[in-house]
Amino acid sequence: MSENKASRSPESSPTGHDVAVLGGGSFGTAMAKVLAENGHSVHFWMRDPAQADEIRDTGINSRYMPDVKLTGDIQPTTSLPEAVGKAEIVFVAIPSKAFRSVIRENSAEFRDGQIVVSLTKGIEEHGFKLMSEILQEEIPRSRIGVLSGPNLAGEIVNQELTATVIAAKDPDVRRTVQELLGCEYLRVYANVDVYGVELAGALKNIYAIVAGLASARDLGENAKAMLITRGLAEMSRFAVSLGANPMTFMGLAGVGDLIVTCTSPKSRNYRVGYAVGKGKALDDAVTELGQVAEGIYTLKLVKEKSESIGIYMPLVRGLYEILYEGASISAVINSLMMSVQNSDVEFILPRTLSQ
Ligand SMILES: NC(=O)C1=CN([C@@H]2O[C@H](COP(=O)(O)OP(=O)(O)OC[C@H]3O[C@@H](n4cnc5c(N)ncnc54)[C@H](O)[C@@H]3O)[C@@H](O)[C@H]2O)C=CC1
Ligand SMILES: O=C(CO)COP(=O)(O)O
């Protein structure tokens, strides 16, 4: 069991803040742990009373982080109004499928000017909304940020060196989150491209599934590099056409997160791809995982959107055919390798850059 040392360096002497973390899964637990170790009072909201009791009594969230002991001032609660009401800053780690309903049902609990930061890497099913857009619609008087980057929860809880990105329009939100989360093992960079940072976090999950599939099929290291690089090309092309800054995709939230999830079996999306590559049905792979793999939903939405706006995304299309149309993996690989479309140019500049 890992029980870590306090993470602030002695000279930094932080002033503790009241913060809320919404969502008692892997990432909510990891962020609650960092915040508590940094000297903050964490109001940790989850749905399940038994889970809240367990964390209160033992410091352990056995369903999601059985080997991690939570220490410091973490107050688990099943009352969202209590958690949000006591907090100066709220972090939301709820899967994209439930994100809007949780925020909408509790919108009256959020105060004007309260900082609310999404940790979620997904897209809403109808309307292609990102989580910050949902926050903007449901609690428009809050100050909104998104956190994204190569941030495997299982490594953060072990205090393994990590960097992340806080994206917000408001400089005070960026600075506050840097101060709250930053410590000797977690370095927090800032970015103003909220849309790009957030979209990158959602898109890379698709390519993690592709990489898991490739790994299961022993396609080799050259193939892995090809998939990651072409994945980066198509996800940036798509995002830039929707208004993201291309430089974001050269950074931690873009290529950084793509690398970690496409190369690590610790990624749930990678694991789903790996299981399907080994012949498992998608539904069985997801059930066995027992945690969220956002990429399987994001894939459908991005395929539809890319077709409607005319952006060429062959890896998205190929994965969709495998997961949802019963195409054989080898037939899709063959068709991707033999495709003549755009194979003569490595870079297709998005319209915004080629003008
Ligand atoms: N685990 C990781 O390494 C990272 C995860 N994320 C993102 O964080 C988000 C959450 O992921 P995880 O915590 O890892 O997922 P998880 O599968 O470990 O846990 C999901 C949590 O959400 C809760 N939940 C589901 N529906 C809910 C509802 N209707 N109301 C309240 N709670 C609900 C579940 O009870 C569970 O506690 C995802 O979008 C994921 O992409 C981001 C960075 C890293
Ligand atoms: O986003 C993540 C790491 O940055 C976690 O990825 P998975 O959801 O695939 O585990």
Helix and strand pattern = EHEHEHEHEHEHEHEHHHHHHHHH
Give the bound compounds.
Answer: 1,4-dihydronicotinamide adenine dinucleotide, 1,3-dihydroxyacetonephosphate
Work out the helicity level: 40-55%
Q: What is the overall pLDDT average? A: 94
N-to-C span? 56 Å
User: Which CATH architecture of the largest domain would you pick?
Assistant: 3-Layer(aba) Sandwich
CATH-assigned homologous superfamily of the largest domain: NAD(P)-binding Rossmann-like Domain
Strand order of the largest sheet: 3-2-1-4-5-6-7-8
Figure out the total of helices.
16
Q: Structural class of the helices, strands and pairings?
A: alpha/beta
Overall morphology: globular
Q: Can you tell me the CATH topology of the largest domain?
A: Rossmann fold
What is the oligomer described by this structure?
A: single chain
Please identify the top-level CATH class of the largest domain. Alpha Beta
